[in-house]
Amino acid sequence: MRTLLLSSVLGAALAVAGPAAAFADSPSHPAGLPKEVYGGAWQSPHVQGIAVDERRGFMYFSFTDLLVKTDLSGRPVGSVVGFTGHLGDLDFNSEDGRVYGSLEYKEARSFYIAIFDVDKIDRMGMNAEDSDVVSTVYLKEVVDDYSADMNGDGVFDGNIGATPDHRYGCSGIDGVAFGPAFGRRGGPQRLSVAYGIYSNTGRSDNDYQVVLQYDTKRWKSYEKPLTQQAPHTSGPSRANGKYFVYTGNTTYGVQNLEYDPYDGTWLMAAYKGAKSGFPNYALFAVDATAKPRLQPLKGQATPEKGKVIPLSARGERDSATGVRGWSDSSGQYGLVAVGKGLYYVVESGKITEGGVAKQTARARLHRFTGATPNPFTRIS
């Protein structure tokens, strides 16, 4: 492991001399933000998401079983290793200076928010369980929906999509982002957590994105160290709010969720779905001021109402379903707003070093234009 980490550090450091070190100062590009940040090359699964601390100048990359911390020139500063679950999307909480990420242990039916004390990440290869940099909060509501026996046969079918089990098609969690309560542009910050949704074309109750919102200000009492062999259950009994966005079924739900306070927009990046009756867009938008309305949920076997949030009027519109979005958008591997309509959008890649296959990530600066079919234009 030490050799692997050293190789990855050297690979990332060599990349700094390239475009990751390019800075600009113009009306369309704030001074101090690089056009590209290279996240390194790692013998891990692909990049899942990023977080940025602009004030202190750090970026954080999730590679599923590994978190990497770099400065904004792409120089690796530290890493957290040893995750046996799925570390997904990340977001930086400016109120407490920590990074929050989705963390799944499907076989153990345990879903957490992992909270990183990022000031302590100061060297490579820190262990997630014994280095005192990771605490976790258990999300019971997610566990209940994931474990739901929807056909009443008394059997939990496990981590598969081809089943009527898993309420709303819940496969766990992926996208996370801090922002205001839905329906508002301001006010106290909430942590929004989006469900992963199994791709399943044979059921009709999985066509919503499901998003939970939590007030995390009192979460200290729930936080426990990560114990992967004996998962804990310390966390809130339910979310402060549960919301539904009608998009059509997607493949594993919202991969990256982001709130942009510049124009009051929530963006939801997803892997495209496979249902022929839907447009299967890759990106959806919700206006922050769009009020959730209690409505009947479409396609449910048992009639049910939920707080439904309408999609933004921007993007392409599918006349058959009324669903709006963008068909050719990126953002599924990492998406973070950095002000004035600018976003870092992550590109995932693969390289081979010394005969070893590795995954890479490049966070590249883009402007959100809203144009179709791709709303992002790269800053060159």
List the main descriptive attributes of the protein structure presented here.
signal; mainly beta; 380 residues; globular; disordered N terminus; five-stranded antiparallel sheet
Secondary structure topology:
Blueprint: H1 2-15, E1 36-42, E2 49-53, E3 58-62, E4 66-71, E5 76-81, E6 86-93, E7 98-105, E8 110-116, E9 126-127, E10 134-138, H2 140-146, E11 170-180, E12 189-197, E13 208-214, E14 224-225, E15 241-246, E16 251-260, E17 265-271, E18 283-287, E19 293-296, E20 305-308, E21 316-317, E22 324-325, E23 335-339, E24 342-353, E25 356-368, E26 376-378
Parallel strand pairs: 5-9, 15-20
Antiparallel strand pairs: 1-25, 2-3, 3-4, 4-5, 6-7, 7-8, 8-10, 10-14, 11-12, 12-13, 13-15, 16-17, 17-18, 19-20, 21-22, 23-24, 24-25, 25-26
